[in-house]
Amino acid sequence: MSGIDTLETTAATAEGEGEPMTVAEAVGRALAERGVAHVFGVVGSGNFMVTHGLVSSGVPFTAARHEMGAACMADSYSRLTDRVAAVSLHQGCGLTNAMTGIGEATKSNTPLLVVTGDTAVGQEQGNFVIDQDSLVAAVGAVPRRIHSSATAVADAVAAYDIAVRDRTTVVLSLPVDLQAEIWQEQPAPAPAPRVIPAGASAEALAELVRILTAAQRPVILGGRGARQAAAELRALGEQTGAILVPSAGARGLFTGEEWALDVMGGFATPGARELIQEADVLVAFGAALNQWTAHHGTLTAQPTLVQVDDRREAFGKHRGVSLGIVGDTASVASAVTGMLAAQEAPRIGLRTPETRARIRRIRHWVDDLPAERHSPGHIGAGALTAALDAMLPIERVVVPDGGNVNMYPGAFLRVPDERGFVMPLSFQSIGLGLSNGIGAAIARPDRMAVVGTGDGSFLMAAVELDTAVKAGLGMIVVVYNDEAYGAEVHLFADHPEKQAIVRFPETDIASIARGYGCAGVTVRSLDDLAGVQAWLDGPRDRPLVVDAKITGDASPLMRENLAH
After folding, report:
1. Are 182 and 22 in contact (CB under 8 A)?
2. Dihedral pair phi/psi, residue 403, rounded to 5°
3. Residues 114, 171: contact at Cβ < 8 Å?
4. Rounded CA separation 216/279 (Å)
5. SS3 sequence of 161-172
6. To 10 degrees, what angle do helices 353-362 and 270-277 make?
7. Angstrom distance (rounded) from CA 381 to CA 532
8. Where does the pLDDT of residue 117 fall: very low under 50, low under 70, confident under 90, or very high at 90 and above?
9. Which pTM was predicted?
10. Which of 80, 243, 259, 284 has its CA 20 to 30 A from that of 153?
11. 416 C-beta neighbours (distance < 10 Å), count
12. Span 37-57, pLDDT tens digits
């Protein structure tokens, strides 16, 4: 008997109470049976019972302190586990509080289910009345709702299935009057359909074989859409003599591969960018060729640019390509490798001893740190990050926040594999890093979550330290503290007289962290990292917040972006 079948025969009464089950509880239990892996939320009257339905059915629950934090935690959890997390919200203001996190998940194509209360059917006046469907659609998420007590379970299951099938964020609104109705037994929803990955046409495969046969300096790019295709892309690279490189969203995809660069885009080292620019063919598998991955088009100007994706709308979305191939990334790579192998032995391509030595020199920023200004009482962000990279266990999940400093955790900290990096920057919002790091720590308790954030970003979300302490998360939060919104300082460097509005007095962030129950260390020089080592040597049963007083220079990426 399936989980849904069990729900059908037992859902007439609430568990252990002998009382009729409400629609809210039935929906919660149905979503649990369908596969919701974890629920994050802030519980109010409008989502109390549906959250209870999820929790009583065995879904772990993390109570966040703010709705945006809950959405970010769920986003990160889903990205790292490939399982659907849910966000539980109160109607109206609870939903609006979460919208930035929902927007980030939507723009990142994260399969996420947001379960939110809604005002009663037909209600036009009241504190919580807003047009929730229009609000949700405005950020690109899919609005769905339950329509009646008779269809509520089917409506909810359909919303879950859309999130999985379309790899998207779905917001399910539950009007409070329908939630309170007594649920009547209904036929169990049909199982979710089994979807076979799209296969490329024979013509498309033959054309890619022709292109790679003629290529002398091929580069293969793997994005988030190719995270399940690492082995196939490595085999294709070996057959064609290609250099491999992941996008930032898939950073870690080729860790350990001697013929791979660390990352493509703005986070890449100057030497890595030069090597990519020298390619005559770039084949992108499951990667959005946006301005960040393409680095304003400078990394996608090869004579031949091929894009492989299972969504037709991906082609030309950010830049024109020579060839677009619709298909599952792993299947396409495997098929093309087989066809090439049947024609000839593996080619040398770019895989020469000279290129091997070159890759070793240019792969990581920490191997060739940029020059930094010295300032008494302040530490260089690059030197700090390199030292932390050497100290912290490599079994980590790195989560950078937005702003001027995002490059340091995002590019200087190495990652163990494609499940060791979460980049919540699709919406270009600052302040999401801490909450995403908490979600990462909960999703991967076997790894240390390492969050890199600015002081402005951190203080936006500092309330979620309470969530991390309550969960006993042994995560580390590195606050690159320049006492400013650093990006704006550098963007408007020609107007120092106007910068007072983005500069702030010195804040004792380590003391703030200790007030929440975290360990807190202030770092002004490399000698102060002894406090970090002491925490590493301890039980790691609470978060560590590092208040790093940095010099505040423009990061290498910021300096380049200023030129654009």
Report:
1. yes
2. 100, -175
3. yes
4. 8
5. HHHHHHCCEEEE
6. 140
7. 16
8. very high
9. 0.94
10. 80
11. 17
12. 999 999 999 999 999 999 999
